[in-house]
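fwd from M.: "can u put these together and see what the complex looks like"

so here's what she sent:
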Amino acid sequence: MALRSISDIRRQELRSAAFRVLQREGVHGTTLEKVAAEAGASKGIVLHYFRSKAELFEQVMREANMVLRQRVNARLAKATTPQERLVAVIEGNFEPDMFAPPVCHAWLSLCEQVPRDLALARVQRVIHARMHSNLMSGLRPLLPDSEAKLKALQISALIDGLWLRLGLSPGSVTPEQAIAVTLRTLGPELSPRS
Amino acid sequence: MALRSISDIRRQELRSAAFRVLQREGVHGTTLEKVAAEAGASKGIVLHYFRSKAELFEQVMREANMVLRQRVNARLAKATTPQERLVAVIEGNFEPDMFAPPVCHAWLSLCEQVPRDLALARVQRVIHARMHSNLMSGLRPLLPDSEAKLKALQISALIDGLWLRLGLSPGSVTPEQAIAVTLRTLGPELSPRS
DNA sequence: TTGGTTATTGACCGATTGGACAGTAAGTCA
DNA sequence: TGACTTACTGTCCAATCGGTCAATAACCAA
């Protein structure tokens, strides 16, 4: 953990505040004033630390992505076989404190901007690329390449779909169900014997 | 087709115009003025036919849903076996003219409002319920009930996920791939021999 | 202390937008 | 024709919001 200046800490506080507001209000409902209020500061300060609202959201998305990445990486580090790597990716994407309706709302709202916001689109591309790469590291040793690619698309789309589903109707999926359904989608030959 | 009054026709035109703008601009970017311009009318007329912007979007979502429903139902009507019903649902959800990036953007934008718009949430619930019911009509004869429910969740989440994927990175999935991946997810025992 | 940088505030502005409304044209029915 | 309803337009308004700016406070180095 590198030394963090006052301004880095402040920026962090504002990102967190923005993410909290985002969960409740969506991108459009998240005004600079609400973010400031959530952080216990004045609106001016937000634009003191971020050039614009768009930049704030970009950094919020980058950070949310970083948290998710760390979760998955922590599990991946403990995995030794390809099968375990697949399970790590899947379980990492459904940890209960992230796979929760408010968080899904925030992601959904950020994703809605992707088609019209180049910066967010870049972050989104990175997310998909990493997901694909993580899955492929488990699939390549077990399947022919073309099969592996299809499987990766299948699993990552399913994960996205389950997130979306939870965002749209809270309570319709539990983390355990999501993991069970996704593991089953791997197929019996890919999931490690429990 | 029932007789349609002038006002019904006008409403229809405005809904279509709104859906077209929605594809380009998203819910927030879709202004009453833009909708009016797209329909070749003045802004006042939009509020003459719809009580509010929210009501306009609700009806746009209802109509988009209706189109999708008709597509699926047309295929379902030709299906005779449970397996054929499953294929009908899947192929109906990936017809090339609907499974296209602009349409996905529009849906994504509408879905983003769901957590904060009761009327849209109701439409969304209907959509999910119908999807579930359609899938169950194919699955129930072939699987024990608890298995069928899980399978239905799996397939519908996968379909949602593939739509989301296409909206987020246009060109990353073709309708053929989407159908192939989803059919494969059914499992060999459920998909009809080709 | 002093001088300069950074942190923070609150006032202000221009632009946008949903919606209200008054008024006009056009059609309908007696 | 004339009364009444419906279609439609353009204007206007209040509210909101992102962003600028000037002013001030706090901090820090010399």
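replying to her w this: Chain A has a mean pLDDT of 95.
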